[in-house]
Amino acid sequence: MTNRASTPGPGEPRGRLLAFLSALCFFLSAVEYMIPKPLPFMRLGIANLPLLLAVDLLPFGPFLALAAIKVLGMSLVTGSLFSYVALFSLAGTLCAALVMYGTRTLFRARVSAVGISVLGAVSSNAVQVLLASFVVFGRAARIIAPVFLAMGLATGLALGFFAERFSASSRWYARARKDARG
Amino acid sequence: MGAAAENDDGRGRPRRFRLTIVDAAAILAAASAVFLSSLGAVDAAGEPRVVISDGQGGEWIYPLNQDREIEIPGPLGSTTIHIHSGVAIESSPCPNQTCVAAGSIERPGQWVACLPNQVFVRVEGGSDDESGVDTGTW
Fold it and tell me: Can you give the residue ranges of every domain in chain B?
């Protein structure tokens, strides 16, 4: 991430940063898909890392675009693009994106990537369980709620700590952030 | 996030990261949501049984201790469920086969679902001993 030649740096247009973060979403979606999980329904959510970093790098519009692109990438990789399962992905990610951006806007420096990540992950999973109860499983969806929310908490925490460490030590991130502030 | 990138400790190392109060509140809120959602989520009383629901509100209940094979129709086709001391989705016409990969379940609160074909299988009852709700949560 410190290679000047291949990553967006100071003075470069924001579009390039969006493109780079989008590519990262695609890549991490593929990585997520490859990692074996103890439960098949488990999600690590590592494809949300670019979104988490982008909270402080992109304005609201491009940030939402990144969220949409992340859904597209995820659905392409898992092969669910043209099924209603992609709706779950879209609802979860859009909700998480709004919650993450809203949390940052509301609390500024009083919240770290950990808080933003946990709220994003849990709200994303909560929306998907809610959607599952409306669209498919009805009251039976109650049973999946605890495990999905717990999963969101655990993966949200892990991703948040990673993002916090990464943003504190990455020169690429420091430059992108300086750039974002103009 | 980011604050630490600009505030190093003077020796070029990033400042130690500390959780803020808002972080702690977020984690606490998430943990409470997990806890509250697990309350009464599973009906663990009575005989161990398999409850199968489809997306149209239909529900089938079978005893867990009798071998049986069941075909549940869904929007994509027929999902085959096999009961044999545990219960497993044996085959389903979905593209990702996550439900088949989930394998067999047998404890109350455990579930396996095929989202594309809208079939939801769960185990209820059989937990009058101390194992209770949390075995299903984890």
Answer: 3-38, 49-137
